[in-house]
Amino acid sequence: MSRAVLVGRVWRGGVINGPCVVAVRNGEVFDITGHAPTMSDLLERDDALEVARSAPGESLGDVQPLLANALAGGADDSIPRLLAPCDLQAIKACGVTFAVSLLERVIEEQAAGDPSRANALRAEIQTIIGSDLSAIRPGSPEAAKLKADLIARGLWSPYMEVGIGPDAEVFSKSQPMSAVGVGADVGLHPDSKWNNPEPEIVLAVNSQAKVLGATLGNDVNLRDIEGRSALLLGKAKDNNGSCSIGPFIRLFDDHFTIDTIRNAEVSMLIEGRDDDFRLAGASRMREISRDPLDLVSQVCGRHHQYPDGFMLFLGTMFSPIKDRDAVGGGFTHHLGDRVSISTPSLGALVNHVQRSDQIAPWTYGTRALLNRARASVPAKPAVQTKAEQAIYPSLAGKRVVVTGGGSGIGAGIVEAFARQGARVHFLDIAEADSRALEATLSTLPVPPTFVQCDLTNLATLAKTFADIGTVDILINNAANDDRHNLADVTPEYWEGRMAVNLRHQYFCAQAVAQGMREQGGGVILNFGSISWHLALPDLTLYMMAKAAIEGMTRGLARDLGPDNIRVNCIIPGGVRTPRQEALWHTPDEEARILAGQCLKQRVQVDDVAAMTLFLSSDSASACSGREYFVDAGWYGA
Questions:
Q1: Residue-wise pLDDT tens digits, 424-483
Q2: Nearest to 529 by CA among 412, 629, 607, 404
Q3: Backbone φ, ψ for residue 428 (5° rounding)
Q4: Residues with catalytic annotation?
Q5: Which end of the chain is more exposed for a tag (fewer CB within 10 A), N or C?
Q6: Nearest CA to 402 among 459, 441, 443?
Q7: pTM for the full predicted model
């Protein structure tokens, strides 16, 4: 399991107070909700495996305390509570996909819900048809011959039809978001007196019918209710806590594939709390009558779509018949039973058995999730781009890094790229502003991700880019325009201003260049300033750095051009940002700026974002080594 790529869901209290998507890496849990607000969203991403492995996210600590707290019933409220790893997906289940379970379903039907008749019926039916049906391929001529024989003997059953006929039994097990996770209580309907767990492997399938991974599940089975009539399936299957899934979804990769599932052996252990009863068993997937991918194709295709994906229980061969309360009475649950389902490749799912009307009610559904998403969007967003912003199809899916993206011009650029469908990582040292922006944009189809990074620390900068991976577009935006005068500047202050305003742009470009070369091209946009062109006062060091950036842009464009890497420089004018308005743009300064511009309008953040989008898109494929002013005609007018 050390190489496993695991994703799941937890409930985080406090300010968040809701479900979050997490990934487990080297035993540490990371909140990656910023990349996928739901598990359904994550499994729709082409880069789901990459996101799970490396997308930046908040660390929630070691996974072992989370598991221990879950098994303790979530006693410690300070630790995130593990949930079922699925959310919006439909929860589907396949029945009688193993010969043993097929036989037991026929017995349930013949017994009409009376467990005392089970043993006699089992012996009778085995004598007639034999106990080994695994050699019969569903839908084959041999299966049709057996069907005719059983009809003649009066033993044909709807369970036989779906067990050996051409069409699998697939039913809706539970509602989206109703499944419970590891450590939770599972529920028995209070009317049931004959029931058992069903340990199964559960496939995680997206809307394109692509199987992304697998987990474990317990499809709690009420033998007496379902045995009375197949039309009582809803009452037998869809109850409070009647479906448990977890602990995590393991994503398919080079070490874990559908063949791993085909050869898995699922173990179960039932431990009685009140009678020390123990029952162990196993379900061997190689004995399944229908291939897992065949079952997926029967569930989803042109005949039926699942836009949020689905979780598919594959069925079980484990049907406990060991006597528990009386000779010949067979097995049934006692309240308090501990049920452990495990397999080496997926870990263990542990639950305790209680009555469905006495366990915690299911209250958090799809409406609650939607309400939370609405509440996370402020009535007046901190940053807003114009509705008429152009759409560039070439930007969709591109990996974009924006430095200084937490506020001001950078925040506008982050939003603009995110609304194009780009995968945006924005680097900033200001956590409060950056987290607020991330929350504001969290409901976008591809929300941006904040990465806290001190760009003046070159070791941290290098590691950050290594963690992000190959970058398609780099926006070198971060800067600080503190005012200063000649007499007050020390060598240390000089070095600090160069580090904040110039040095990181060069080393960010260095960090992305090789990856761009290897993929055949890329875009680097450096941000200069109109200040040195206008010779503004009290900004000598800032203007020195910004003038150097234009020279650096020309040099990088020449050096990287043969590798199809375009390098340009954007020079904003007097942009109206919260920082500028709070610190420098007095009414007198406002009037001076407007008087100097050809256009008598203030430059807005989205005006700069529009130029950034254009220069990053394929529409600007012939543009490199130049400076582009967004200043309403202030310079040179």
A1: 999 999 888 899 999 999 888 889 999 999 999 999 999 999 999 999 999 999 998 878
A2: 629
A3: -160, 155
A4: 542
A5: C
A6: 441
A7: 0.59
